[in-house]
Write a structure and sequence with these properties.
Layout (H helix, E strand, L loop, with lengths): L43 E5 L4 H12 L7 E4 L29 H7 L11 E4 L4 E4 L2 H10 L17 H16 L1 H6 L4 H21 L13 H17 L14 H11 L10 H11 L29
Parallel strand pairs: 1-2
Antiparallel strand pairs: 1-3, 3-4
Bound molecules: glutathione.
Length: 316
Protein backbone atom coordinates (compact mmCIF):
# COMPACT_ATOMS: atom_id res chain seq x y z
CA UNK A 1 0.00 0.00 0.00
CA UNK A 2 1.41 3.39 -0.87
CA UNK A 3 1.31 6.08 1.78
CA UNK A 4 2.45 9.68 1.86
CA UNK A 5 3.99 11.18 4.99
CA UNK A 6 0.88 13.26 5.54
CA UNK A 7 0.24 16.77 6.75
CA UNK A 8 2.08 16.55 10.10
CA UNK A 9 4.67 13.74 9.83
CA UNK A 10 5.45 13.64 13.57
CA UNK A 11 1.75 13.20 14.31
CA UNK A 12 1.17 10.48 11.73
CA UNK A 13 1.04 6.94 13.12
CA UNK A 14 2.40 3.89 11.29
CA UNK A 15 -1.07 2.85 10.18
CA UNK A 16 -1.74 6.17 8.47
CA UNK A 17 -3.87 7.68 11.22
CA UNK A 18 -3.48 11.22 12.58
CA UNK A 19 -2.56 11.53 16.28
CA UNK A 20 -2.82 15.18 17.39
CA UNK A 21 -0.08 16.47 19.71
CA UNK A 22 -0.91 17.28 23.35
CA UNK A 23 -1.21 20.88 24.49
CA UNK A 24 2.04 22.18 25.99
CA UNK A 25 0.95 24.98 28.31
CA UNK A 26 -1.81 24.30 30.77
CA UNK A 27 -1.64 26.87 33.55
CA UNK A 28 -4.89 28.32 34.87
CA UNK A 29 -6.23 31.76 35.52
CA UNK A 30 -8.30 31.49 38.70
CA UNK A 31 -10.86 33.82 40.26
CA UNK A 32 -9.05 33.68 43.62
CA UNK A 33 -5.58 34.08 42.12
CA UNK A 34 -4.30 30.94 43.88
CA UNK A 35 -2.70 29.67 40.67
CA UNK A 36 -0.49 32.75 40.39
CA UNK A 37 -2.63 33.94 37.48
CA UNK A 38 -5.30 36.15 39.01
CA UNK A 39 -8.30 37.51 37.17
CA UNK A 40 -7.64 41.12 36.26
CA UNK A 41 -9.21 43.31 33.60
CA UNK A 42 -6.81 43.86 30.69
CA UNK A 43 -4.16 41.42 31.94
CA UNK A 44 -4.85 38.56 29.50
CA UNK A 45 -4.94 38.51 25.73
CA UNK A 46 -6.22 35.90 23.30
CA UNK A 47 -4.34 35.12 20.13
CA UNK A 48 -6.66 33.35 17.72
CA UNK A 49 -7.32 32.40 14.15
CA UNK A 50 -10.84 32.86 12.82
CA UNK A 51 -10.22 29.81 10.66
CA UNK A 52 -9.50 27.41 13.48
CA UNK A 53 -12.39 25.57 15.14
CA UNK A 54 -10.55 25.20 18.46
CA UNK A 55 -9.83 28.92 18.61
CA UNK A 56 -13.37 29.67 17.47
CA UNK A 57 -14.79 28.08 20.61
CA UNK A 58 -12.84 30.43 22.85
CA UNK A 59 -13.91 33.43 20.73
CA UNK A 60 -17.56 32.44 21.18
CA UNK A 61 -17.25 32.03 24.95
CA UNK A 62 -15.46 35.39 25.25
CA UNK A 63 -18.34 36.95 23.30
CA UNK A 64 -21.18 35.20 25.17
CA UNK A 65 -19.67 35.88 28.59
CA UNK A 66 -19.28 39.55 27.63
CA UNK A 67 -15.54 39.52 28.24
CA UNK A 68 -14.55 41.51 25.18
CA UNK A 69 -13.51 44.56 27.18
CA UNK A 70 -11.72 42.55 29.86
CA UNK A 71 -9.75 40.23 27.55
CA UNK A 72 -8.21 41.62 24.36
CA UNK A 73 -7.96 39.55 21.21
CA UNK A 74 -5.76 39.52 18.13
CA UNK A 75 -6.53 37.55 14.98
CA UNK A 76 -3.66 36.04 12.98
CA UNK A 77 -3.34 35.90 9.21
CA UNK A 78 -5.43 32.96 7.94
CA UNK A 79 -2.69 31.95 5.52
CA UNK A 80 -0.06 29.92 7.30
CA UNK A 81 3.23 28.89 5.69
CA UNK A 82 6.12 26.84 7.06
CA UNK A 83 6.90 29.61 9.55
CA UNK A 84 3.56 29.08 11.26
CA UNK A 85 0.86 31.56 12.26
CA UNK A 86 1.83 35.15 11.48
CA UNK A 87 0.55 38.60 12.32
CA UNK A 88 -0.32 40.74 9.31
CA UNK A 89 -2.32 43.80 8.45
CA UNK A 90 -4.80 42.02 6.18
CA UNK A 91 -8.62 42.04 6.16
CA UNK A 92 -10.02 40.49 9.33
CA UNK A 93 -6.57 40.19 10.98
CA UNK A 94 -4.01 42.63 12.37
CA UNK A 95 -0.46 43.18 13.51
CA UNK A 96 0.27 42.24 17.13
CA UNK A 97 -0.55 45.28 19.31
CA UNK A 98 0.68 43.65 22.54
CA UNK A 99 4.16 42.31 21.84
CA UNK A 100 4.81 43.36 18.25
CA UNK A 101 5.52 39.72 17.45
CA UNK A 102 5.73 38.85 13.76
CA UNK A 103 4.96 35.20 14.36
CA UNK A 104 3.00 33.42 17.06
CA UNK A 105 6.00 31.13 17.56
CA UNK A 106 7.64 34.06 19.37
CA UNK A 107 5.04 33.74 22.14
CA UNK A 108 5.90 30.05 22.51
CA UNK A 109 9.64 30.70 22.61
CA UNK A 110 9.17 33.54 25.12
CA UNK A 111 7.39 31.04 27.35
CA UNK A 112 9.70 28.08 26.79
CA UNK A 113 12.90 28.68 24.81
CA UNK A 114 13.19 24.90 24.29
CA UNK A 115 9.71 24.60 22.73
CA UNK A 116 9.85 22.41 19.63
CA UNK A 117 6.22 21.39 19.16
CA UNK A 118 3.67 22.71 16.71
CA UNK A 119 2.65 26.32 17.29
CA UNK A 120 -1.12 26.35 17.64
CA UNK A 121 -3.98 28.72 18.29
CA UNK A 122 -5.70 29.58 20.55
CA UNK A 123 -3.19 31.05 22.98
CA UNK A 124 -4.07 32.85 26.21
CA UNK A 125 -1.24 35.30 26.89
CA UNK A 126 -0.45 36.97 30.22
CA UNK A 127 0.74 40.53 29.56
CA UNK A 128 2.04 40.86 33.11
CA UNK A 129 4.11 37.67 33.30
CA UNK A 130 4.88 37.92 29.58
CA UNK A 131 4.16 34.28 28.94
CA UNK A 132 1.52 31.90 27.64
CA UNK A 133 -0.90 30.79 30.32
CA UNK A 134 -2.52 28.12 28.19
CA UNK A 135 -2.72 26.86 24.63
CA UNK A 136 -5.49 24.38 25.39
CA UNK A 137 -8.82 25.41 23.97
CA UNK A 138 -10.69 23.16 26.41
CA UNK A 139 -9.03 24.82 29.39
CA UNK A 140 -9.34 28.34 27.99
CA UNK A 141 -13.06 27.79 27.39
CA UNK A 142 -13.54 26.66 30.97
CA UNK A 143 -11.48 29.55 32.37
CA UNK A 144 -13.55 32.08 30.47
CA UNK A 145 -16.75 30.27 31.41
CA UNK A 146 -16.03 29.93 35.11
CA UNK A 147 -13.22 32.12 36.42
CA UNK A 148 -13.93 35.55 34.95
CA UNK A 149 -17.40 36.16 36.39
CA UNK A 150 -16.20 39.29 38.21
CA UNK A 151 -15.52 40.89 34.83
CA UNK A 152 -18.18 39.37 32.59
CA UNK A 153 -21.73 38.06 32.55
CA UNK A 154 -21.94 35.94 35.70
CA UNK A 155 -25.55 35.05 34.94
CA UNK A 156 -24.60 32.87 31.98
CA UNK A 157 -23.61 29.37 33.07
CA UNK A 158 -22.40 27.30 30.12
CA UNK A 159 -21.34 24.38 32.31
CA UNK A 160 -24.16 23.95 34.84
CA UNK A 161 -23.57 21.51 37.69
CA UNK A 162 -26.58 19.35 36.85
CA UNK A 163 -25.26 18.62 33.34
CA UNK A 164 -21.53 18.31 34.03
CA UNK A 165 -21.31 14.55 33.89
CA UNK A 166 -23.17 14.29 30.62
CA UNK A 167 -21.33 17.32 29.21
CA UNK A 168 -17.96 15.70 29.87
CA UNK A 169 -19.12 12.46 28.30
CA UNK A 170 -20.59 14.14 25.22
CA UNK A 171 -17.55 16.39 24.81
CA UNK A 172 -15.21 13.43 24.69
CA UNK A 173 -17.33 11.52 22.18
CA UNK A 174 -17.88 14.59 20.02
CA UNK A 175 -14.20 15.49 20.07
CA UNK A 176 -13.12 11.98 19.08
CA UNK A 177 -15.65 11.31 16.38
CA UNK A 178 -16.58 14.73 15.07
CA UNK A 179 -14.38 17.73 15.98
CA UNK A 180 -11.20 15.76 15.52
CA UNK A 181 -12.96 13.06 13.48
CA UNK A 182 -13.10 15.27 10.41
CA UNK A 183 -9.34 15.86 10.73
CA UNK A 184 -8.79 12.12 11.21
CA UNK A 185 -10.59 11.56 7.91
CA UNK A 186 -8.92 14.47 6.13
CA UNK A 187 -5.36 13.76 7.27
CA UNK A 188 -5.54 9.97 6.91
CA UNK A 189 -2.93 8.56 4.57
CA UNK A 190 -4.42 5.08 4.22
CA UNK A 191 -7.79 4.25 2.65
CA UNK A 192 -9.11 2.06 5.46
CA UNK A 193 -8.17 4.62 8.11
CA UNK A 194 -9.94 7.36 6.17
CA UNK A 195 -13.07 5.26 5.69
CA UNK A 196 -13.31 4.35 9.35
CA UNK A 197 -12.93 7.97 10.44
CA UNK A 198 -15.41 9.24 7.85
CA UNK A 199 -18.02 6.61 8.82
CA UNK A 200 -17.66 7.64 12.47
CA UNK A 201 -18.24 11.29 11.57
CA UNK A 202 -21.56 10.38 9.96
CA UNK A 203 -22.57 7.99 12.71
CA UNK A 204 -22.22 10.87 15.14
CA UNK A 205 -24.10 13.28 12.87
CA UNK A 206 -26.92 10.70 12.56
CA UNK A 207 -27.16 10.38 16.35
CA UNK A 208 -27.11 14.15 16.84
CA UNK A 209 -29.79 14.54 14.17
CA UNK A 210 -32.01 12.23 16.19
CA UNK A 211 -31.33 13.91 19.53
CA UNK A 212 -32.04 17.32 18.05
CA UNK A 213 -35.38 16.23 16.62
CA UNK A 214 -37.03 16.62 20.03
CA UNK A 215 -34.90 19.27 21.72
CA UNK A 216 -33.97 22.70 20.52
CA UNK A 217 -30.42 22.38 21.89
CA UNK A 218 -28.53 19.37 23.23
CA UNK A 219 -29.71 19.89 26.80
CA UNK A 220 -33.02 21.59 26.11
CA UNK A 221 -33.87 25.26 26.19
CA UNK A 222 -30.51 27.02 26.01
CA UNK A 223 -27.24 26.30 24.26
CA UNK A 224 -24.48 25.15 26.61
CA UNK A 225 -20.75 24.50 26.22
CA UNK A 226 -21.22 21.32 24.20
CA UNK A 227 -23.52 23.02 21.70
CA UNK A 228 -20.80 25.56 20.97
CA UNK A 229 -18.18 22.82 20.72
CA UNK A 230 -20.30 21.18 18.04
CA UNK A 231 -21.18 24.44 16.31
CA UNK A 232 -17.59 25.20 15.31
CA UNK A 233 -17.40 21.93 13.38
CA UNK A 234 -20.88 22.16 11.83
CA UNK A 235 -20.29 25.68 10.54
CA UNK A 236 -17.19 24.47 8.67
CA UNK A 237 -18.78 21.26 7.44
CA UNK A 238 -20.26 22.05 4.04
CA UNK A 239 -17.73 24.77 3.11
CA UNK A 240 -14.64 22.74 4.07
CA UNK A 241 -14.92 19.27 5.58
CA UNK A 242 -17.31 17.90 2.96
CA UNK A 243 -14.85 18.48 0.14
CA UNK A 244 -11.41 19.19 1.55
CA UNK A 245 -11.53 16.48 4.24
CA UNK A 246 -13.62 14.08 2.10
CA UNK A 247 -16.46 13.80 4.62
CA UNK A 248 -18.97 13.59 1.84
CA UNK A 249 -21.49 10.85 2.55
CA UNK A 250 -23.99 13.67 3.14
CA UNK A 251 -23.93 17.44 3.35
CA UNK A 252 -24.90 19.05 6.61
CA UNK A 253 -27.71 20.70 4.67
CA UNK A 254 -29.15 17.20 4.12
CA UNK A 255 -29.89 16.86 7.85
CA UNK A 256 -33.05 18.89 8.57
CA UNK A 257 -32.62 19.06 12.35
CA UNK A 258 -28.87 19.61 12.36
CA UNK A 259 -29.05 22.24 9.65
CA UNK A 260 -31.83 24.09 11.50
CA UNK A 261 -29.80 23.80 14.72
CA UNK A 262 -26.75 25.21 12.92
CA UNK A 263 -28.76 28.21 11.71
CA UNK A 264 -30.29 28.67 15.15
CA UNK A 265 -26.84 28.81 16.78
CA UNK A 266 -25.46 31.00 13.97
CA UNK A 267 -28.29 33.49 14.55
CA UNK A 268 -27.73 33.49 18.33
CA UNK A 269 -26.87 36.94 19.67
CA UNK A 270 -23.37 37.98 18.51
CA UNK A 271 -22.32 34.59 17.14
CA UNK A 272 -22.51 35.39 13.41
CA UNK A 273 -19.86 38.07 14.02
CA UNK A 274 -17.43 35.37 15.15
CA UNK A 275 -17.76 33.49 11.84
CA UNK A 276 -15.49 34.50 8.97
CA UNK A 277 -15.91 32.23 5.95
CA UNK A 278 -13.20 34.03 4.02
CA UNK A 279 -10.64 33.15 6.70
CA UNK A 280 -12.05 29.65 7.12
CA UNK A 281 -12.00 28.74 3.45
CA UNK A 282 -8.72 30.36 2.50
CA UNK A 283 -6.98 28.89 5.53
CA UNK A 284 -7.90 25.28 4.87
CA UNK A 285 -7.63 25.31 1.10
CA UNK A 286 -4.30 27.20 1.12
CA UNK A 287 -2.55 25.61 4.04
CA UNK A 288 -2.71 21.86 3.56
CA UNK A 289 -0.37 21.36 0.63
CA UNK A 290 -0.66 17.59 0.75
CA UNK A 291 -4.40 17.73 0.30
CA UNK A 292 -4.87 20.74 -1.97
CA UNK A 293 -1.57 21.62 -3.64
CA UNK A 294 -3.22 23.93 -6.19
CA UNK A 295 -4.64 26.13 -3.43
CA UNK A 296 -7.79 26.64 -5.42
CA UNK A 297 -10.60 27.72 -3.10
CA UNK A 298 -13.99 26.31 -4.16
CA UNK A 299 -16.74 28.83 -4.85
CA UNK A 300 -19.53 27.19 -2.91
CA UNK A 301 -21.50 26.19 -1.15
CA UNK A 302 -24.32 28.66 -1.58
CA UNK A 303 -26.04 28.71 1.78
CA UNK A 304 -28.34 31.10 3.60
CA UNK A 305 -27.58 30.80 7.28
CA UNK A 306 -29.89 33.70 8.04
CA UNK A 307 -32.92 31.78 6.76
CA UNK A 308 -35.58 31.02 9.39
CA UNK A 309 -34.66 27.88 11.35
CA UNK A 310 -38.07 27.09 12.84
CA UNK A 311 -36.50 25.60 15.97
CA UNK A 312 -38.60 27.70 18.36
CA UNK A 313 -41.29 25.02 18.00
CA UNK A 314 -39.14 22.74 20.17
CA UNK A 315 -39.06 25.28 23.01
CA UNK A 316 -41.81 24.90 25.50
N1 LIG B 1 -5.36 20.99 21.00
C1 LIG B 1 -5.34 22.33 20.58
C2 LIG B 1 -5.70 22.35 19.15
C3 LIG B 1 -5.35 23.62 18.49
C4 LIG B 1 -4.92 23.41 17.05
O1 LIG B 1 -4.48 22.32 16.67
N2 LIG B 1 -5.02 24.49 16.25
C5 LIG B 1 -4.59 24.43 14.86
C6 LIG B 1 -5.46 25.26 13.96
S1 LIG B 1 -7.04 24.60 13.72
C7 LIG B 1 -3.23 25.04 14.74
O2 LIG B 1 -2.96 26.07 15.33
N3 LIG B 1 -2.34 24.46 13.95
C8 LIG B 1 -1.04 24.98 13.73
C9 LIG B 1 -0.19 24.09 12.88
O3 LIG B 1 -0.70 23.07 12.48
O4 LIG B 1 0.97 24.42 12.61
C10 LIG B 1 -6.24 23.07 21.51
O5 LIG B 1 -6.78 22.42 22.40
O6 LIG B 1 -6.36 24.29 21.44
Amino acid sequence: MSQTKGQFPSEQAEDGSFARQDDAFRKWVTADGSSGFAVEAGRYHLYVSLACPWAHRTIIVRKLKKLENAIGMTVVDPIRDERGWAFADVPGASLDPINSFSFLSEAYIATDPQYRGRVTVPVLWDKQAKRIVSNSDDDIMRMLEMQFDALGDASLDLYPVEHREETDRLNEWIYETLNNGVYAAGFATAQAVYEQAAYRVFETLDLLEKRLSTRRYLFGETPLETDWRIFVTLIRFDPVYFGHFKCNLKRLADYPNLYGYLRDLYQYDGVAQTVNFDHIKRHYYYTHDDINPTRIVPLGPLQDLDAPHGRERLSR
